[in-house]
Amino acid sequence: MVYAIVRAGGRQEKVEVGTVLTVDRQKAGEDGSVTFAPVLLVDGETVTHAADDLAKVTVTGELLGHTRGKKIVIQKFKNKTGYKKRQGHRQELSRVRITAIG
């Protein structure tokens, strides 16, 4: 069983071939592929975590599409002053299917 831990959008995700990830908005290459930087690679009994060895490993995926996350509401309130502020945010996301680890 081969899997990798990759750095994706400020977080670390465990991925295998065929895994579908939802990560922060990514730009794809001309062929629609996205590459991730591996942090750890597990290949059966072998665990690779040295930076020199991981520089040779690439984790690639295909971009499935862009979405937006659920809306969060930021509210600020100060008592007895009449200060109220309300703001919303929706994160821009991308869905990526992992195609190759190697």
TrEMBL record:
It holds the Pfam family Ribosomal_L21p. One of its GO terms (cellular component) is ribosome. SUPFAM superfamilies: L21p-like. It comes from the Bacteria. InterPro entries: bL21-like (IPR028909), bL21-like_sf (IPR036164), Ribosomal_bL21 (IPR001787), Ribosomal_bL21_CS (IPR018258). Keywords: Ribonucleoprotein, Ribosomal protein, RNA-binding, rRNA-binding. This protein binds to 23S rRNA in the presence of protein L20. PANTHER family: 50S RIBOSOMAL PROTEIN L21 (PTHR21349), LARGE RIBOSOMAL SUBUNIT PROTEIN BL21M (PTHR21349:SF0). Belongs to the bacterial ribosomal protein bL21 family. Part of the 50S ribosomal subunit. Contacts protein L20. This is Large ribosomal subunit protein bL21.
